[in-house]
Each structure stands twice: as structure tokens, then as C-alpha cells.
Amino acid sequence: MSSQPLLELDQLVKVYEGRDGLKTTRVRALNHVSLALHRGEALALVGESGSGKSTTAKMVARLERPTSGTIRFDGKALSGRVGLAYRSRVQMIFQDPFGSLNPVHRVAHHIARPLIRHGKARGKAEVRERVLELLETVGLTPAADFADKFPHECSGGQRQRVAIARALAVDPELILADEPTSMLDVSLRIGVLNLLRELKRERGIAYLFITHDLASARYFADRVFVMYAGTVVECLDPEHLGEQAKHPYTKLLLSAVPDPRGGIERPLEGASGSAKLVDPPPGCPFAPRCSHAQPSCAKALPELVTVEGQHEVRCPVVLA
Amino acid sequence: MSDALLTVEDLCVDYVTERGWLRVVDKVSFEVQPGEIMGLAGESGSGKSTIIQAILRVLKAPGVITGGTVRFDGKDVLALDKRGLRGLRWCDISLVCQSAMNALNPVITIGEQLGDAIEAHEGVRRSQALVRARELLELVGIEGSRVHAYAHELSGGMRQRVVIAMALALRPRLVLMDEPTTALDVVVQKEILQQIIRLRRELGFAVIFITHDLSLMFELCTHVGVLYAGRLVEHAPSQALFERPMHPYTLGLMRSFPDLHGEGDDLVGVPGNPPDLWKPPKGCRFHPRCPQAFADCSTRAPQLRALVGHRHAACHLVDQVDQLDQLDQLDQVDQEESP
């Protein structure tokens, strides 16, 4: 872990400006997010809608620019337009496998395009060969059959595998996976997660895995970052997610996860509500909903404090 | 006759298309007792939403009910005429559908929308209907004064509560819920589900609940039915099913979702892909994906068979096990379960 991180976010802030009549409103989507991701590591960003997890991925994919803060990839800070070289190292998998494939093109076309664009294969025969290889890697066999299918002839799980093959075409070092399984059927989800895990083991691909599902974060990731209103509130080892979580928001989320052993009537550790992202007040964004809140919470954003090892918590009240 | 609230027997639904008739629900039978929460689990295309729509006779073309019976409180639902259906829908059975939060009319207030249903079905005056609308909102945990709000002024969770209030407006005895919380965040989801449980205790309605989230299904439902490719493959009390699934497909589903507790073992899931209903596998429809399939499975379709402890399963393996042996095993399990 002493080596240089593959991806480093340093105090990332994103403010979107909008209009409400004549007034300009400022929506703070990311609030000083810092994290480091090492080669071959899977890091999960977990949180409810509006927590900034997808925004973080968009920044790294360079689909959006941060308002302030730096993104360093392999030691170099990103600035200006990123070229093909960056795209060949960082790829993205989206949530909706129905929307991310072009319905008028066959499966092979989707995978061939990045191969040609990035010069990974030349000539018809070589491209075809690589396409078939990639389809086999993602478990779509017989590959020749799948290559000539249209997206509508594939199930959701198969389509997501095509999207993974497309991302793999350029041999990326980092894959940004934005809810890659949440639109798939339960029985197919685990297959896709296992495939991503296998690629991590075999090829050393690192992942920024975005999900709202704590259980799949626990299954897939090496570290979990819990986000609330654009702020990382806790960072912990997924294995002990259930027992070691300390931040009141993490605990609220955990108490809301359905438990198949029954327990629907077990009380929630808090209540639902939404964070104020428009012109947010200073202090801890969770304070207005938090049962542990003290007057000091509303004054300044607490620091992320290391509890032990890699477990960090942004809440002085529960740590006191 | 049993005292079941809803009895579905050998229900068949076909899609009539240019290519021919496609059987999407194949001889599904189950019962719902008063006050029970019955869950229907299955992948997309397994027929769960279609069953719900058939029960309420709101199937859209090309879906056609081609066989079986649906009885609600002794009434033959499939034989009802337009007028009879009007009396059944919303009064006896109501529906909360998948994208219900977007089902609200954006240009009239939610109070007026609630009032409309009450006015139309109960024949009360407008002013009375509005008073009831207010009560209903309070029932689902929204301030009564919000009757004057428009749908866009409410959050997704609140809109979903309004739709649930609407479904309860005429005190139905059965509420059909098709993925009512799928689009919501977990905290909001849990709050709404707890509310449903509370309301069910107060008002005593039964629920048929569809979700793809099995953890949620086991947590919420009293009974669970598992569908595969249009057929019911297993049906049992939910905790018994969770402890000891009998059908290999149910077992596969349960090995598909990661858990928050316990060992982070590698999960295997269900290999393969859902079948093409145009050419369903012969015999048991699950056999191409089944790790325990044997010769019989590809030739003969297993029937849903009643087992001990109100369990039902459709699998040759269950048939094969020596019946006495199986009864013993199950009895033991049941005894361990009940303290």
C-alpha cells in the first residue's frame, strides 16, 4: 500500500449553478471529497440518491469538471481535455444495459469500435478475433453467435456483459462501475459481480464501484466509503460493515437494509429526510437529521478521523 | 370450500401475437387468506406482474386470460361483467403499481385526486370526500394540510404514500402491490413498508406483494410464492422457505444475493439465462439451469405438490425422496423453528 495510488482525489468540490427565477442557486454536489485508490483495489462508494457518488465517478471519467480540487491519475494531475491515452486506461460501465448499447448495431460493432479507435487491433480478421476473445472472457459463449446478435436479442445480464467486454477492449487499469447490477435480475446479478471480481483478480483491474446496496458493496469491495450529501462520512473495511460502523448515517442505512431473517418492525435508527444541497449550511450535513447532533455540529464540518487501521469516521460526537 | 380470501386456480394467460399464442402464465394456483402478505418472487418475464393484472382483470393487449379461475370471497372474478368489475376494483381489490409515483395527475391537487375516487365509489358529497382525503393522508403519515399540494411539490416517497393512501381509500380487503418501493432509497423504503405493516394490522387487509428483492420479501411477507417461466415452482410460509428452500431454483436465488452478515463466501447464483418462452424447455422448465437435474426432468414436468407445513414444491427431487423420510425431516425442521 506504500506505492503511489492509481487514482487520488484531493479535496474535490463540485458546485452546480442553477436558476430559480432571477436568483442563481448553487447546488453543492461534492464537498471536499478525498480518496486514494490503489492498483487492483476495489473501492465502493455507497449512499442514497443525491449523495454524490455518481458525480464522483463522472469527475473521474472527465465527463464533468470539478469546481475545485485535484484528480491525480498515476501521479499526474488531470487538466484540460483528457486524450485517448487516458480513456484507454479508465473505462466506465453504466447502470442501464438497455440504454448503453445502440439498438441498430450488432454486439460485435460495440466491441470493435474501441478496438479500432484505440488501435488495439488492425484489419477485419484481427478485430473479429479480438471481439470473439473478449466475448469469451465475459462468458458470452458461443462467442460467434453472440457477436452477430442485436442488443434486443440478449437478456439484461448478457447486455451488461457486452458493456463489460467493451470496457475491457482497451485493457483499462481502472473501471468506473456505476450501479452495474442494479437493473439486472437477481439471479443474473451475482454472475456479473463475480465476473468483475474475476477480472480484478486476473488482470489487476481497479474499480470505483458505485452502489446503493450495502450488501453488494460488502461482497465486492476492499474498502467502502459511505457518502452523504457530497461528503464522505465514513470509510471502512466491508467485512465488518455490520458490526463496526460508527457514523450515525451509516448506522441508519444499515438499519434500513432488509433482513431476510425477519425484522421488518425493528425500528430504524433515524428517519428519512433529504439533505440541503442548495446553499448548504456549514457544519455536518447530516446534523439536521442526526439524533446525536450537538450544537457544535452545525458550526464546522468535522474532520475525518482514523479510528483504527483504515477505518475513518467523520463524527466527533460518536467518537468522543 | 376453504375460507380463503382469494383463490387462484390453474390460471393461464397467453399473449396473442402475430407469431402465435405465447403462454406467459401456465396453470398457476395459490390462495391468499385474509390478512396475509403473500409475496411473489421471480425474474423478469416470470409472469408475476401478469398474474396481478389478471386477478384485477386489467390485462392489457396482447394479454388474454385463457384458462383457470379466480375467486375473490366466493365471487367468480373472471365471470364478472363491467358493472361487477367496477364494484370489485378499488372497493374489494386495489392496486399500487410499479411506477405509481408517476401515476398522479400533475395538474390537480392530491386532495382532489383522492376525493375523486371516494366520490365516485361511495357516492358521498364532495366536501365529505375531501374530509376523508385528509384523513387518508394522515393515515399514511402525511400532514392533512397537504391535500392542497400538487404532486411535484412532494418527494418521491411522499408521492408513493399518497398512492398507497389512494389504494386504501375504499377499505379494500386485498391490496396488490407491484414493486411499490423499488425506485426509493432504502431508508424511505423501510419507512413505507413499516407503515404498510402497521396499516394492515389496523385495517386487516391482505396484500400480494411483488418485488425482485428477496431479502425484502422474506422480511415482509408471511408467505412466498416463487415463479419460474410462468409456473409456480414453490410456495411456502416465508420463514420456512428461508430456512429450507425445497426447489433448486429457490435455492439458487437465495445463493444469489449477498448478505450483510456472516461469512463473505463466494456466491454462485443461478447459472445460465432465463428461458425463451417461445421455445420453453421440455419437462421441468428449470432443468437446463438446474445443477441437480436428471433424466426425468427433461421429459416430464413436475407438478406442484403439497408437502408438510403448508409447503408446496414442483420438483421431481422432492417427489423422489422417500415420503416418510421427508415428512420426518420437515417435522424436525418445523419443531426447531417453533420455540
TrEMBL record, chain A:
ABC transporter domain sequence ranges: 7-254
Record NCBIfam families: oligo_HPY
Cited InterPro entries: AAA+_ATPase, ABC_transp_ATP-bind, ABC_transporter-like_ATP-bd, ABC_transporter-like_CS, Oligopep_ABC_C, P-loop_NTPase
Gene3D superfamilies per record: P-loop containing nucleotide triphosphate hydrolases (3.40.50.300)
Coiled coil: none
Keywords: ATP-binding, Nucleotide-binding, Transport
Lineage, uppermost ranks: Bacteria, Pseudomonadati, Myxococcota, Polyangia, Nannocystales
Protein name according to UniProt: Oligopeptide/dipeptide ABC transporter, ATP-binding protein
Pfam family, one: oligo_HPY
Organism of this sequence: Plesiocystis pacifica SIR-1
SUPFAM superfamilies the UniProt entry points to: P-loop containing nucleoside triphosphate hydrolases
Gene Ontology BP annotations: peptide transport; transmembrane transport
GO molecular function, one term: ATP binding
Automatic annotation (TrEMBL), chain B:
Domain spans labelled ABC transporter: 6-254
Keywords: ATP-binding, Nucleotide-binding, Transport
One GO term of the biological process aspect: peptide transport
Pfam families: ABC_tran, oligo_HPY
Keyword Transport (UniProt): yes
Gene Ontology MF terms: ATP binding; ATP hydrolysis activity
PROSITE patterns, per the entry: ABC_TRANSPORTER_1, ABC_TRANSPORTER_2
InterPro entries on file: AAA+_ATPase, ABC_transporter-like_ATP-bd, ABC_transporter-like_CS, Oligopep_ABC_C, P-loop_NTPase
Gene3D superfamilies per UniProt: P-loop containing nucleotide triphosphate hydrolases
PANTHER family xrefs: MALTOSE ABC TRANSPORTER, ATP-BINDING PROTEIN (PTHR43067:SF3), OLIGOPEPTIDE/DIPEPTIDE ABC TRANSPORTER, ATPASE SUBUNIT (PTHR43067)
The protein's name: ABC-type dipeptide/oligopeptide/nickel transport system, ATPase component
Organism of provenance: Plesiocystis pacifica SIR-1
